Amino acid sequence: MVSAVIPRYEFRIFGNDLTKYEVKIKKFSEKEITREMDSVYLLTPWKRKNNVKIREGVMDIKNLDQEHEGLQQWNPFLVGKFPLKAEVIKSVVFPALGIESPVFGRKKYSLDQFLSEVVSIDPDLAVAYVWKTRHAFTVNDCITEIAEIKVNGSFIKTICIEAEDPDKVMEAKKMIGIDNDAENVSYPLALKRIMGLAVLPDYWNKIDF
Amino acid sequence: MSKEKMKIGEISKPRFEFRTFGRSFEDTAYLMSRLSVPVPEKVWERTSKEIYIISRTNDVNNTKIRDGKMDIKTFVQEVDGLEQWNPLMKGEFPMKSEMLEKEVFPAFKVEMPELEKEEYTLDEFLEMVKTHSDLQAVSIEKERFGFMVNDTICEFANVWINGAMVVTVNSESTEIEDIKKTIKDIGLEGVENINYLQASKRVIGMIDKKLAN
Q: Are B111 and B135 in contact (CB under 8 A)?
């Protein structure tokens, strides 16, 4: 099923101490809702333009459509619920991951079968189990989120600003006090850094003792 | 029978260790601080930045690099769920190829890359690690708070593994019974013993297993 969601422009940061931004977000907006959810992200060291995750038994793939003034526009292009046909895994999931598809022993895979029989034995694939507590706000008409996340048991925070109008995101970013030179870090990139699949820049979540 | 008194920061006979990792050990940290005898100021709070070299095929040798110095510890035995690790080698960068060939890579238990130079700087060594499919360098930053409970050296620490935070608590001593009593006293009975190597592998997804909480 192809989703009809209009892709939004997004700016996201990660870190352990985002207090100065959180204070500003809370100044501009009441907290609207808190949601908890877990996701399984599938990662490879190579491809950076796809975000492949499974949430509540649904495979969700987003493609990085374009970047505009440092904002990213991710386009969801597939939603498939497990059990998934091997043919779909072969023709859609593996190309999105950018790796060669294995030979499948089954015609259909439940989520458990997919993880244990396909993902866990593939040396090119890594799995991040991510638990999110997401707090939603609205800043300058943008969906703004502060989230505490647990990546394979380790803790980090993220803030995201997103909207269909990129100018509104740029303005909200300014209102929250995020510098122009702050790096826009997507979930796949953050997870790859934590898991050692992507180079760790010196400025990444720098700890000041 | 008299036992050797543990002293923080001093070399003693091989120690046994209980350590675990998770997201929150607030109660344990509180108990540790209340049950601790006064400790030297130098261990109240310590910070360090290290690189651990994680090998897909090895769980018995623990390699870390701090300030350009490599330190490999090897697993000796487990007694009553407590682990004993002994020093295996210490070396400094630039490091001779002979040392890499005879001591370091055998400790990783991986295929030996071709060494073309006589010696390697830390950056050159890390480049070799980066290109080796069974090895991974992991950034570990520690903020450690030292205590002494039941004559065991204890620690509560915030640890950032590639920038993501976990918390660790430990108790170590030459005396197994003292550690077991401490585990009970600080509320960690039944909690899994997870060493740095295991915790790093779990966070980076090399092992599909959860931390203690």
A: no
A121 in any annotated domain: yes
Full-model pTM: 0.87
Q: What range does the domain containing A167 cover? A: 9-194
Q: What is the CATH number of the domain that holds A121?
A: 2.40.320.10
- Which residues sit opposite A42 in a β-bridge? A52, A127
Go through the domains of chain B in sequence order and give each one's CATH number. 16-203 (2.40.320)
Is residue A180 included in any domain, yes or no? Answer: yes
Contact A196 B162 (CB under 8 A): yes
Does any domain span residue A2? no
Nearest to A152 among B141, B160, B203 (CB): B203
Q: Does B126 contact A at CB distance below 8 Å?
A: no
pLDDT, tens digit only, all 213 positions of chain B: 456 565 665 555 678 999 999 989 999 999 999 999 999 999 999 999 999 999 999 999 999 999 999 999 999 999 999 999 999 999 999 999 999 999 999 999 999 899 999 999 999 999 999 999 899 999 999 999 999 999 999 999 999 999 999 999 999 999 999 999 999 999 999 999 999 999 999 999 998 899 999
> Is there a contact between B210 and A16 if contact means CB atoms under 8 Å apart?
no
A180–B contact, CB cutoff 8 A: no
Report the alpha-carbon angle B128-B131-B133, nearest 5.
120
Chain A contact set for B203 (CB, 8 A): 151-154, 194-195
Given an 8 Å threshold on Cβ–Cβ distance, is B165 in contact with A127? no
What pLDDT is recorded for position A183?
93
Q: Within an 8 Å CB–CB cutoff, is residue A151 touching chain B?
A: yes
Are A153 and B202 within 8 A, CB to CB?
A: yes
Q: What is the mean pLDDT of chain B?
A: 92
Half-sphere exposure for B188 (CA within 13 Å, toward CB): 33
Q: Provide the domain count of chain A.
A: 1
**Does residue A205 belong to any structural domain of this protein?**
no
Kindly report the number of other CB atoms within 10 A of residue A126's CB atom: 21
- pLDDT per position as a tens digit, A4-17: 567 899 999 999 89
Tokens in use for B169? 């608590």
Cβ-based neighbours of B190, under 8 Å, separated by 6 or more: none
